[in-house]
């Protein structure tokens, strides 16, 4: 494949970096990523699928753009780079077990795979045990780094004001862990959520509600709006799908999310333009996806180290 453009992915705290050639696959996704560069993001690691790095990319378009070239990511070469509707930039660096269809945009060259594997090991330690955040910087090859968080706008003044507040809060927590999640993971739970004083149960439920709220609910609302669903059913679905998880998360300590959700519900009937609805839901998606990334990083995965897969029967 012809390499059209190159990006650099650096982990400054590790002193490691790799390059990736964008090779023309899923051009719309690659162009959306390219246009958003440079940026920085908390680096994450797959917890179920295997040898896979991913982070939330501040690219609103990833939530809804369609990738035509879809592959089983288990079968592609190590070093393959993907963009996904989960708003992720992902990189395969070894064996994967999850049979997930994915949309590749490029590949890291073979002579840089050892560096990629080293980064993968360091990030796994960060997520699983040390909890020391590792930031990834993604930039155009040969150009300066930096960071910016895109802001969409709405014609309606109320919607635009809420978007502005969401944008500021997302920017505030993009590279710094939200105080509410830090408190929760340290056992400071004002509501006393967690039966008989337990904490792990609450953390599990918070993780289980946050990820689908961003990935599926808000991302799905953006896609449904752009695919032509009328505003009235969209408003009904938005209220029905977001109220219960957001209220529960507020009970568990995510007061800011619950406050944003209440504001959203109070003003939904004002929105009479699909473009305004899309902009607002896209910012809710990015905010919740950011919360989800931090929750995955802070979660004490190492407490389950004694729980291991059974060996296959012989």
From TrEMBL:
It comes from the Bacteria. Gene3D superfamilies: 2.40.100.20. Residues 160-298 form the Cucumopine synthase C-terminal helical bundle domain. This is Cucumopine synthase C-terminal helical bundle domain-containing protein. It comes from Actinomadura macrotermitis.
């Amino acid at each position: 494949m012809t390499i059209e453009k190159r990006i650099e992915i650096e982990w400054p705290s590790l002193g490691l970096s790799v390059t990736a050639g964008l090779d023309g696959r899923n051009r719309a996704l690659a162009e959306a990523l390219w246009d958003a560069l440079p940026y920085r993001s908390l680096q994450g690691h797959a917890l179920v699928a295997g040898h896979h790095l991913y982070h939330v990319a501040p690219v609103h378009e990833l939530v809804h753009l369609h990738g035509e070239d879809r592959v089983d990511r288990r079968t592609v070469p190590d070093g393959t780079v993907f963009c996904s509707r989960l708003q992720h930039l992902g990189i395969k660096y070894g064996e994967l077990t999850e049979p997930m269809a994915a949309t590749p945009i490029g590949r890291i060259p073979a002579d840089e795979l050892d560096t990629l594997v080293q980064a993968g090991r360091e990030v796994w330690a960060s997520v699983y045990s040390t909890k020391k955040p590792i930031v990834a910087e993604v930039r155009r090859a040969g150009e300066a780094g930096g960071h910016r968080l895109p802001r969409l706008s709405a014609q309606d003044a109320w919607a635009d004001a809420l978007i502005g507040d969401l944008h500021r809060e997302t920017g505030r927590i993009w590279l710094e862990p939200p105080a509410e999640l830090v408190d929760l993971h340290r056992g400071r739970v004002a509501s006393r959520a967690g039966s008989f004083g337990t904490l792990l149960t609450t953390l599990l439920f918070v993780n289980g509600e946050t990820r689908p709220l961003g990935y599926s609910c808000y991302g799905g609302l953006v896609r449904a709006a752009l695919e032509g669903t009328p505003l009235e059913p969209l408003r009904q679905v938005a209220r029905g799908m977001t109220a219960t998880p957001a209220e529960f998360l507020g009970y568990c300590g995510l007061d800011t999310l619950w406050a944003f959700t209440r504001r959203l519900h109070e003003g939904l009937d004002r929105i009479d333009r699909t473009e305004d609805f899309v902009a607002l839901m896209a910012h809710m998606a990015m905010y919740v996806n950011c919360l989800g990334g931090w929750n995955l990083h802070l979660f004490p995965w190492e407490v389950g180290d004694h729980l291991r897969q059974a060996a296959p029967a012989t």
